[in-house]
Automatic annotation (TrEMBL):
Protein name (database record): ABC-type D-xylose/L-arabinose transporter
Protein location: Cell membrane
Record-stated family: Belongs to the ABC transporter superfamily. Carbohydrate uptake transporter-1 (CUT1) (TC 3.A.1.1) family.
Keyword list, A-Z: ATP-binding, Cell membrane, Membrane, Nucleotide-binding, Translocase, Transport
Membrane-protein topology: Peripheral membrane protein
Source species: Halocatena pleomorpha
Pfam families, per database record: ABC_tran, TOBE_2
């Protein structure tokens, strides 16, 4: 099945959502999603992700600003006329209907398509989703994965301009989640349908999307491809939220080219000092460095001495938790390395991968790093 309309971009212009209790859930939100893009919206619980999606779907009023699909504002357009299809976390299947009916019901209700055409679309989509043998079953008789496929199939069968997906995989066990994640990506690539996918899982966002929207407290933090969000976080919030285990942060002051922390000094190459965007910012700073951007057991001048506190065996990689004068520092090392707790070790921060945040959380050193996004496991996946 191919897309019927090639103008399926989504433009958010100064979008604001205020709930009835005067709570501002989304504010000053601007973004343009291109036709055919797979966008994930990621952020902590309560950051406004679902609200954003529900405004596009027509399940919530837009308090201020505008949302356009293609060149047309969706304000005043009935939800069923917006060309969108939504997949929910709980699938929202009709329990008393068969899979076939669940998939055809929306089409019957909202289109003039002849029965034969609807039947054919349901059949084709069921085959695409691998649920053709379940068409006469009721949802209660299906596994979680099959229910997820029915919910996705029901969205696909409508041949929408835009898919809206709200945490569609969070009810699946860890192994199935990984499988369905690749299945959804493959489907979206095949169909080329613009997709907005909400998740609280930063790993899902990093692995699935063309670009990531990072939200916090209803405000856009960054909208960029995964590598950029990972390597050039716009601010401390993004740096901390994206990546697992999280980036290390140390309180520092800048004296010339030296970063002075609690119990360590770090010499920043002058070429990097020259790129600091605010030359007045010298105190109240934080140095940020990812666990994989630290050399364990390093030699040379610019090293920091630390003590091994905890060794976490994670399979192909291990994580060493070090103590630097009371500050914790996580380092990613290869799986073969298992130091003894209490060992003293010298470590080095890769200067190209050092981030520096000012007191307001702004990243003063963007554009300095190009580390590949590691295929880290989420906490839940580690258990399988
Ligand atoms: P997320 O999807 O990121 O978890 P939501 O968009 O669901 O966040 O919610 C954003 C904020 O808006 C939350 O603080 C939530 O409590 C609030 N909120 C959501 N729906 C309503 C509502 N119907 N009435 C009042 N507040 C709401």
């Amino acid at each position: 099945m191919s897309k019927t309309n090639d103008a399926a971009s989504v433009t958010f212009e100064n979008v604001r959502k205020v709930y009835s209790d005067d709570f501002v859930a989304v504010d000053s939100f601007d973004a343009t999603i291109d036709d055919g893009e797979f966008i994930t919206v990621v952020g902590p619980s309560g950051s406004g992700k679902s609200t954003l999606l529900r405004m596009v779907a027509g399940l919530e009023e837009i308090t201020g600003g505008d949302v356009r699909i293609g060149s047309e504002s969706i304000k005043g357009v009935e939800p069923q006329d917006r060309g969108i299809a939504m997949v929910f976390q709980n699938y929202a299947l009709y329990p008393h209907m068969t899979v076939r009916k669940n998939m055809s019901y929306g089409l019957k209700l909202t289109t003039e398509l002849p029965d034969e055409e609807i039947k054919q679309r349901v059949r084709e989509t069921a085959e695409m989703m691998g649920i053709e043998d379940q068409l006469d079953d009721k949802p209660a008789n299906l596994s979680g994965g099959q229910q997820q496929r029915v919910a996705t199939g029901r969205a696909i069968v409508r041949d929408p301009k835009i898919f809206l997906m709200d945490e569609p995989l969070s009810n699946l066990d860890a192994k199935l989640k990984v499988h369905m994640r690749t299945e959804l990506q493959r489907l979206q690539e095949e169909l080329g349908t613009t997709t907005i996918y909400v998740t609280h899982d930063q790993h899902e966002a990093l692995t699935m999307s063309d670009r990531i929207i990072v939200l916090n407290e209803g405000e856009l933090q960054q909208f960029a491809p995964p590598e950029e969000v990972y390597n050039e976080p716009a601010n401390r919030f993004v740096a901390d939220f994206i990546g697992s285990p999280a980036m290390n942060f140390f309180d520092v002051e800048l004296h010339g080219t030296t970063l002075l922390g609690n119990g360590f000094e770090y010499e920043l190459p002058s070429a990097i000092v020259d790129t600091i965007s605010d030359t007045d910012a010298t105190t109240g700073l934080e140095l940020g460095i990812r666990p994989e951007d630290i050399t364990y057991d390093a030699s040379g001048d610019n090293t920091i001495t630390a003590v091994v506190d905890v060794v976490e065996v994670a399979g192909s990689d291990n994580f060493i938790y070090l103590d630097i004068e009371g500050s914790e520092c996580r380092v990613r090392v290869s799986g073969g390395l298992k130091p003894t707790v209490g060992d003293r070790v010298d470590i080095a921060f890769n200067p190209d991968d050092v981030h520096l945040f000012d007191a307001s959380g702004e990243n003063l050193l963007t554009g300095s790093s190009d580390t590949a996004v590691p295929q880290a496991q989420t906490e839940s996946e580690k258990t399988t």
